[in-house]
Amino acid sequence: MKSARTEPVLDAAWRRRFQSTRCRQTSSLLRLLNDADTGVQYAAALKLAQMSDPAFISQLVDWFLQRRSRFALSVVSKINHPQVLNAFIQAFNNERWDEGHGRTAFRRDLQLAIAAFGEAAVSKLVPFLLSDTVEM
User: Fold this and answer.
1) pLDDT value, residue 124
2) How many helices (H) and strands (E) does the chain have?
3) For residue 65, what are the contacts with CB-CB under 8 A and spacing of at least 6?
4) pTM as predicted
């Protein structure tokens, strides 16, 4: 069998934009958090989260709370900070647990992200769990 001849193919525009986040300055990364392309948002947020700069934590937390999506949760869950735990608890409290399907994966990942905070999360969850009956 002959080997197939391959020709170089140019990267798609989205891939170039995604990869270009690695060399961007901080100010442009912050602007990319509101980009229409969620892949670019994710790449910019990951880069900001890796910087471990406390100045970006509140912006990343706000970004997560605006989207409340799995990709935003996966980025913010890499940050071990009390403000992140507070955001997770807020998202947990605002989640409509009486709804059936649709957000099962997000709910599971949110529970795991809260559990990663261990004992610090328990004291914040007690009032919620005592006041409402939640079926998870």
Assistant:
1) 86
2) 8, 0
3) 87, 90, 91
4) 0.73
